[in-house]
Amino acid sequence: MGMYVPFMIRCPLCSHENKPAQSPREGIRKTLAGEFTKCRKCGAEFTEIHVPNRPLVKQVVGQLGKISGIVTIVNDIPGNASAMVVSYR
Ligand SMILES: [Zn+2]
Question: Which long-range contacts (CB under 8 A, 24 or more apart) does 78-83 make?
């Protein structure tokens, strides 16, 4: 309900909480567009990211039209996280 929820991507290798952008909307946009794929701390390359199907995510998907092949929109992810890296290298 208009609450500010930062969009984070936790690195499965080093546990760093990556924030692709200051604003949640821009963080989601970068992630869905495939513009954020590497952990800023350890450099792990994310090869599959799950993003929960929240209202802001739906909006951004609608604006982009097409999303990165490494991103899957899922109904829910464990722990109520912003996004979950499923695989990396
Ligand atoms: Zn990392």
Answer: 81/8, 81/10, 81/52, 82/5, 82/6, 82/7, 82/8, 82/9, 82/27, 82/51, 82/52, 83/7, 83/8, 83/9, 83/10, 83/31, 83/49, 83/50, 83/51, 83/52
